[in-house]
Every structure is written in C-alpha cells, then in structure tokens.
Amino acid sequence: MKGISYIVPLAVAAGLSWGVSGTTAFAGSVTGYQPVTQDRLDNPGPADWLLYRRTYDGHGDSPLRQINVDNVKDLTPVWTFSTGVVEGHEAPPMVNNGVMFVTTPGDQVLALDAASGDLLWRYAPKLPEDLFQLHPTNRGVAFWGNNLYLATTDSRLIALDAKTGKVVWEATVGDYHHGEYMTLEPLVVNGKVIIGTSGGEFGVRAYIAAYDADTGKALWKTYTVPSPSEPGGDTWNTDAWKTGGGSVWITGNYDPKRNLAYWGVGNAAPWPGDLHPGDNLYTSSTIALDPDTGKIVAYHQYHQNDSWDWDEVRPPILINMTRDGKTIDALVHPARDGYLWVLQQTDDGIKFISGKPFVYQNAFKSLDPQTGRPTYDLDHKPVVGKTVTFCPSLWGGDDWTSSAYSDETHLVYIPANNNMCGSNEGVDKKLLVGQLWLGVDPSTNKLVPNGQHIGELQAWDPATGKQAWMYPFPNQLFASVLTTAGGLVFVGGTNDRMFRAFDAKTGELLWQQRTNSGIIGMPVAFQVGDTEYIAVQSGWGVDAQRIQNSLAKTSMKLDPDEVPQGGVVWVFAVRHHN
Fold it and tell me: How far apart, in whole angstroms, are the C-alpha atoms of residue 347 and residue 443?
C-alpha cells in the first residue's frame, strides 16, 4: 500500500456551486430516513447495505436473488453519477432505506436517491493545504441513529446529519503533520464509533480508538504496537516500537456472541526487519478487541518481524463451518503474505487451524503445525544493504481488497495476484517527521513477474483447504468481491475497465460491462421497491495505478497511462421487457 505521495484537489460537479470546501451543498433533501439501531446492524435487512461488508461477519454477501445466473446477461446500467473527483474510488455505496451514501477521494460524501441517482446533498470537508499521505482515499461512512460518521485523511472523525449533510460534531483524532491519517470506514458497535489510524510509512505508531456516537467524546485508545510495559512489548528488542507502524487501514469485523471486534494490523516500520528486531507484536496480525474497553483479548500473528510490507490489514471473515467433522467458529483470512489462513475463535483465544499458499510464495519454508508460526527462507527476507527478491510482491497475494464468502456455496472468493514477485534493497535512513520512511532504496523497489498471467479470481473451500475454481486475467486483479444469493460473484479490478459477473459454482464468466475507468472499489447489492440493484464506483488510482506503473517497467510492458481516471457511481438492474 505504498508509493508516492498525493494531495487530491476536489473538483466541483457540474450544476452545483459552493464556497470553500467544508460546507454542504443541497440539491434536494432526504425524506423518510430510517434511523440505524444496534438491532438493524446485528440483523441487517436484505434491501440495505449498512456495514462495510454488509454484515458484521465480513462476508460481503447479499441474500438478494432477483438478479441471478439466468438473467444476469440482461443486467444494464440504470443510472450513473460523476463524482467530479480523480484518484482511486474504493468505498462501497452504502444504502439505507433507498438512500445511497458514497464517499470519494478527498473525503467527500454524496447522498443520492438510490433508485434514480438524484443528488440530495454533498459534503466536502476542508482539508489542509499542507496535507500529505499515500492514500488520498476514503472507504465509506458508518451509520448510527440519524448520523453518518466519516474518518478523514487529515485524521478527524466527523459526524454528519444523514438527512442534511450538516456537521453534528467533529473530533481531532491525530496529528496529520506527523503523518497520521485515516482511510477506513468506521465500525459502530453499541453507540461507539471505532476507528483506526494509518501512517506507518511515516514512522507513526498506530492505534485503534473509540468515540461516543452521540457526543464525539473520546472513550478509549489502544496502540497496535505495545510499549515495553504492556503485554507484547517484550517482542520489540529495541526502542523501534516508538515508530513501529502497525497501521489500521480497513474496518474491523464484529462477533456479537463474544462481544469482540476483530481488526487487521499492518506491517512494522520501516520495512526491513533488521531495523526493528524481534517478533514485533501486534504487527501483521489479527487482534481481537473488547469494544467496550479497547482491551486486546486475543491475537494471531501471521508472520513475525515483517520485512516485506505484507501488512495484514483486513480483518478475518467470521465463518461458522464444519471442518473434520466438527463445527467451529472460524476466522478465515486470505492474506497479503500469500497464505489462506484458517483460525478458530475459542473462549481461550484464537487457535491456529491451517495455512496454505493460494499464490506462489517463496519466503516461508514451513509452518509450525501447532501455532502456524512460519520458518523463513532467509534468501527471500529483505534486509539492509542487499537486494532481495521475494514472492509475492509487497502488494501480496491479496492486498486491502476484500474477499467474499457465499452463504450459498460455502466458498471464499479471493481477488488474487499470482506470479507477481518483487525486489528491494533495504537502507538505514534517519526518520524525519513528515517524510516518507520506508527503509528501502526506491530505485530497487521493483516488481518481477514470473508467469504467463497475474490476476486470478479464486474460489476456495475453507473447510477442506481445496481450490474449487480459478479464472485468470493477463494483468493484475485489484478490487473487492461481492457474492449474492443469486449464485453470482461480482468483481472489477482489471485495467480493461470491465465490471464482471461470474457463476459462483463454476467460475464461468456470465456478464461484463465496460465502465469509464478501472474499478478498484467494492460492489454492493441493494433493493428499492421491487427492484434489486448492483452498485459500484469506477475510479482507478492509488495502488492499482502504482502496480500498473511498476509492471510497465517489466517484460510485460504495460502502458502506465492506459486507464483513465475519474470517479463515477454505476448502478445496474435487470430491466424486464413487456
């Protein structure tokens, strides 16, 4: 999730005008808004999309089945809306009772009529002119009551009135001057708005924090890198913990039964492991937090002393499944390190079940059968002063983009990048506040393709550890996945600008539609009246563009300017003919 720094200018959409950003423009109003309660988050209606992956368990699966394998060929665009912003559009179009809320790079929030695409209001926060960060994007708003919650790239948490777009309250979370920023959609549990901070690439020590949804009062704060006096602090052998990274990029998942929120934690900073000796808890890990107190009650570290920038930022998918004749509460994580991990939630913590590579991986020699701790091939572990090649690349087998789990097929669908290795040479560079601090020589940070194709949409049975099917793409596949009860898998992620639907059981390509730009965002399914819709934002940029730039310098010789930028919300439905 690294590359060059961007500051994104906000462009005004045609037909609207307002003063300095930080105001809300009105073109209509939200009527009949349905407040979001804890019960609605625990048991979301099939028509809505109220959480980052629709449900707390992170399945990314819709129970709607009006659009299915038989009629998806008739799926057509019913409306589009240009956001007026360039760069990578990653947020899911959130839908509550027929109203869509979409965020864009630069932290704009759009309220749209979900059936017609009519703009109801637009909010654009005033961002500092000296703001710097690597990911000028946003991954969505959270709901509670009549409010929306927006985490910003200048490290603020803003509550908006969902009906009007006006600011209800605002809290300063961190100091953007030091490189702290946020890109995630907040997680709301029982009136607490939980966020995580990024900035490890600037030497930030990241954390997860909670705020009162009604007042904005800070409730608790938990660092993902412990101090020497805290549990796990002894896994940092020097004072590198003070600048240790552990960024939190992606919204956590939640288990109401155990009252635990599961979060993915990024890599240790800077990249080469010899600059921060030790196992470096809780980096490159899943941690389980008590949302009431912020206490870390369980964890699993996928790989110790991360040296590859394989930050495991996505939380695991919570799946109740039968494995070896036993029903378990599983935590399934298709990882950036290239392994498909299956863990188990227990009353005593997180138990390792299995780990298996789903892309070519040459850094692990083996996994401990009891703990899952990897033994490394040191020839493929980056260090200072030596150029090292490793597979997969720093963008991993699956980066921040989300897999999906179908409750119909019981398969996990992974947007994977295979045959894409990388190389770099570590450097010991002094940290300067506000400057990029990766610990590698940029001229040596390269991609090394080693196969006939890279992108793969994969389907795996997590209960058996077997791959069900795979659909290859010539270049990268970089986008989140949606599954539906209609037997479909939707994904964008390719530089040909296509949005595609596959048969969830067989992997057969059933439908595709070219869009204005490349799709790296998350598709959703929702319903208004009697009609089911599929929605996604098209808007290429950030990591996908950086991967393409890197691949263009290899034997693949891709055109780095092949994919035009510019955000558009696309909404599709099956139109019945008389």
Answer: 48
Token pair recorded at residue 485: 């009860």
Question: Could you say which of 309, 311, 337, 543 is catalytic?
Answer: 309
Structure tokens at 207: 């954390």
Distance (Å, whole) CA 309 – CA 520 = 20
- Pairing mode of beta strands 404-405, 75-82: unpaired
Q: Do the bridges between strand 387-390 and strand 296-301 make them parallel or antiparallel, or are there none, so unpaired?
A: unpaired
Residues 373, 301: Cα–Cα separation, whole Å: 8
Judged by phi (left if over 0) then psi (alpha if -120 to 50, else beta), residue 54 lies in: left
Give the residue from 565, 524, 446, 552 showing the smallest Cα distance to 136: 565
| 309 counts as catalytic | yes
- Strand, coil or helix: what is 219? strand
Predicted pLDDT at 562: 85
Per DSSP, 576 falls in state P
Interatomic CA distance for residues 12 and 258, integer angstroms: 45
Q: What is the pLDDT of residues 48-63, one digit of tens each?
A: 999 999 999 999 999 9
Assess contact for 308 and 438: CB atoms under 8 A.
Answer: no
0.70 exceeded by pTM: yes
Residues 6+ apart with CB under 8 A from 155: 172, 173, 174, 175, 176, 180, 181, 182, 197
Tokens representing 498? 């296509």
Inform me whether the pLDDT recorded for 172 exceeds 50: yes
- Which residues lie across from 515 on neighbouring strands? none
Whether omega before 270 lies within 30 degrees of 0, making that bond cis, reads: yes
pLDDT in tens, 284-338: 999 999 999 999 999 999 999 999 999 999 999 999 999 889 999 999 999 999 9
What is 54-574's CATH number, 2.140.10.10, 3.30.70.3040, 2.30.42.10, 2.60.40.10? 2.140.10.10
Is 90 exceeded by the pLDDT of residue 19?
no
Token pair in block for residue 328: 């378990």
Per-residue pLDDT, 15: 29
Task: Tokens 């129970």: give the residue.
Answer: 63
Per-domain residue ranges for the chain?
A: 54-574
Give tens-digit pLDDT for 449-459: 988 899 999 99
Nearest to 493, CA basis, from 449, 548, 431, 451? 548
